[in-house]
Structure formats: C-alpha cells, structure tokens
Amino acid sequence: MAKLSNMSNAQHFWIGQARGEHYAIWENEHLILCFEGTKEVVCHRDQLTVKTHPDNILFAVAIAKLHYVPMSTLVEQLQAFKGVEHRLEYVRTVGDVHFYNDSSSTSPDSALTAIDQFVPDRLILMLGGSSKNADFDTLADVIVKKHVRVVLYGAEGQPIKERLLAHEGAALILEHFKDGNFEGIVRQTFELAKPEDNVVMSPACASFDLFKNAKERGKEFKRVVALL
Asked: Do both 32 and 120 map to the same domain?
C-alpha cells in the first residue's frame, strides 16, 4: 500500500509511521499528531478508557483532523468514547473480576489484539467456537510467552489446546469445557478467576457451533454476566 501511494497525487496521511507532513503515531505511550508539518501531543494512552486496536484511534484522529475538528473536542470525544458492542466491550465488574465481551473476535489475529489491551498476568481468555480453518500456532505462542491463562470451549477448543500443548502451555489451560452449556462455562470461568482478573471472551473463532452468529454469542455472554 505504501508503494502504491507514491503513484497517487492525493494528499498522504500516514498512520503508524512518522512520514511526511501528515501522520498519526503512538510514541512512548503518547498519541502524536502531525498536521501540515506541525507536531503535537494529543493525549497519553492512560487517558483513554476504550479497549481497541491502537491503530483504530490513530485513524479516528486523522479523520477528525482532516475535517478540522478542534483539538479540545477531539480529546474530549476520545476520552468519552466507550467502544462498540461486541468489540472489547466492558460488561461489568463482579467481585473484583472484570468482564469484557469481544464476541466479534472470530480470528486468531483479533484475539492477539485483545491480549495487547490487558496486563497478561491479569487476563483470562475464553477461546473457542466453530471452525474457520484458522491456524492457532501464533496465538498459542503468544499466550505461552506472555503467560496468559485460557479457558477453552466449543468445537475448536481441542485444536487450540493441541497448539498450546505443542508450545508447552499446559499449565495455562484453566479448563477445557467439552459440553455446550455456555452459561455454565461463563459461571465456572468466574469461579476460576482471581480478584482484579479480566475475563475476556475473545473466542478467535466463529460462533456457529453454539449460536446463530457472533452478536447472539455476545448478548448471551452479557446476559450471563449480568446474573453473576
């Protein structure tokens, strides 16, 4: 894409790269915006409450700046934004355990994004669902290297488990649920969690083994968490 951009006379606004006169980057946990050659700090990552891929924030800032949104308004809206449903959506805290609904995570890459948003030793990932013929090797490698605990379920629970075992991650598998009782899985995951853990349903798989779609899966997760 960067090579193709050189063939266009259009204005370039770089995301994640400090190039040219227009760019948005993360630098030492600060969001840096350069527009028409003028560089300024927008905010620190700690000022944002939303959990999302960091590039999403950069794109939002770039689009806002191209429409000449005032910096004060831009920062205010970034801090107020709570995210969208089913994408690292904060649900509630129960007994000092924090629950997040990331049902839109239907691939290993999206689960990797979820991992990056939390302190690894305070994270429990709920992984599993129906098959998309995905390769779970990289995900398993990252889980083991970062010591992320996992709960496995659904049709893809076993393939994910096999990759974790191949990476010597047996100790990180808190439970492998083989039945289809999703409510029971969520409740038992809560029992396995410790105070200040983040339980994140970021399945890395499709939902069709137990649900009509990912939205239904997310709504069921939130319904059960509301009852805890």
From this structure: no
How much helix, strand and coil, in percent to the nearest 5, is found in the chain?
A: 40, 25, 40
Instruction: Measure the CA dihedral 115/116/122/123, to 10°.
Output: -10
Q: Which amino acid is at 42?
A: V
pLDDT tens digits, 167-218: 999 999 999 999 989 999 999 999 999 999 999 999 999 999 999 999 999 9
How far is residue 161's CA from residue 153's CA, in Å, rounded to a whole number?
10
| Digit-coded pLDDT (tens) for 146-175 | 999 999 999 999 999 999 999 999 999 999
Angle at CA of residue 131, ends 157 and 178, nearest 5° = 25
pTM more than 0.70: yes
CATH number at residue 20: 3.40.1190.10
Domain that holds residue 171: 89-227
Same domain, 141 and 165: yes
Round to whole Å and give the CA distance between 148 and 141: 10
